[in-house]
Specification:
Length: about 350
């Protein structure tokens, strides 16, 4: 579809989008505000571990307004360095702003970028194809699914409320991906089963890393008025950032995933430190660093174990209530000496 085909009103909308996009690109080139780069730096810290995956690939950011998306910024400015084939970005037209996606576009649009044409390796508005979608730009729409089928790797931060459905779509279409999700998604039955089957794993950045997100101005005001500083938001140099316990999820292989966890402690002689659960034959391990090197049975470890998980070293047997046949445990951790403790992943050392 050409701009001429869109008619006068649509051409006007495209000019508005171009103006906003040009401003975004110019700001990205010239801005000295460290606050702006906080989000971009999060992307850079994670993406640097995957550079070998992107050569000759089509990258699709299907939950991003390109005018404000740092995913679009990262891939467009690193297009030649990564050796990308194409970058596609879609924007949802909904005007209801959300914490993780500044959805401000009046029309659902998608952009295609195939690299710099003037050899300066800097994206220019004349080099970016801006097109309108007939539907609303929802990742579940037929148009967006067709774009998904054309793509090799999906990189974005999807709506957390639709995380299960979003991942299900990626798996259904056999796509490689690198996405952001809430840490609690680990305990979702559908997501954990993918982790257990080695179809999905935690990304390179540590699970304890504090991810911050830019938020619309009005939302920022509401958070400051009714939210809790430190847990729901943080103010850095006068700028309000939304805070959420978020991590990267991926099915792209990285070196971290094949590093053995060095074990220092022993079970023999320290049995009292590793009590067994009330209803299951597995020892409890309170900290990942306390995993014994000489125990060959089932062990319950904190969910942060996934940060150190090497499938060549350990086998994941299950997640407490998904592994164990006790309905009253649904959504809870296992019982230890009559008390319910926090969630545990059940593992076994494969090298003993």
């Amino acid at each position: 579809m050409t701009q001429q085909d869109l008619g006068g009103a649509n051409n006007k909308n495209i000019k508005v989008v171009k103006k906003g996009l040009t401003k975004h690109l110019q700001r990205a080139r010239n801005a000295k505000n460290d606050d702006y780069y906080t989000l971009l730096s999060d992307i850079e810290k994670e993406l640097k571990h995957y550079k070998n995956h992107f050569k000759d690939k089509v990258v699709f950011c299907n939950c991003d307004d390109p005018r404000v998306s740092n995913f679009f910024h990262y891939f467009s400015y690193n297009f030649e360095q990564l050796g990308l084939k194409k970058l596609i970005t879609t924007c949802y037209k909904n005007q209801n702003t959300e914490l993780f996606s500044k959805q401000k576009s009046e029309k659902a649009i998608y952009l295609e970028y195939t690299g710099s044409k003037n050899q300066n390796n800097i994206p220019n508005i004349t080099e970016i194809g801006i097109k309108h979608l007939k539907e609303d730009g929802d990742f579940r729409s037929k148009e967006c699914i067709e774009l998904l089928k054309q793509s090799d790797i999906i990189v974005t931060n999807p709506p957390f409320s639709l995380f299960r459905e979003y991942v299900e779509q990626l798996i259904k279409h056999n796509k490689k991906f690198l996405i952001i999700g809430n840490k609690n998604a680990i305990t979702y039955k559908e997501i954990f089963n993918l982790i257990k089957e080695n179809k999905l794993w935690v990304g390179a950045m540590p699970m304890g890393y504090d991810m911050l997100f830019a938020v619309p101005e009005e939302y920022a005001k509401r958070m400051v008025k009714s939210g809790k500083a430190g847990s729901q938001y943080r103010i850095i140099d006068g700028v309000v950032y939304g805070r959420s316990p978020s991590i990267w999820f991926t099915n792209l292989d990285i070196e971290k995933r094949h590093e053995d966890l060095i074990l220092y402690k022993t079970y023999l002689g320290n049995e009292k430190e590793y009590p067994k659960y009330d209803h299951y034959d597995a020892i409890n391990v309170n900290r990942v660093t306390d995993i014994p090197q000489d125990y060959n049975g089932a062990m319950g470890v904190p969910v942060t174990f996934l940060d150190k998980y090497n499938p060549d070293q350990f086998e994941i047997l299950g997640l407490d209530d998904h592994r164990l046949a006790y309905p009253e445990w649904r959504g809870r951790g296992p019982s230890l000496k009559g008390k319910t403790i926090y969630r545990r992943i059940i593992i076994k050392n494969k090298k003993i």
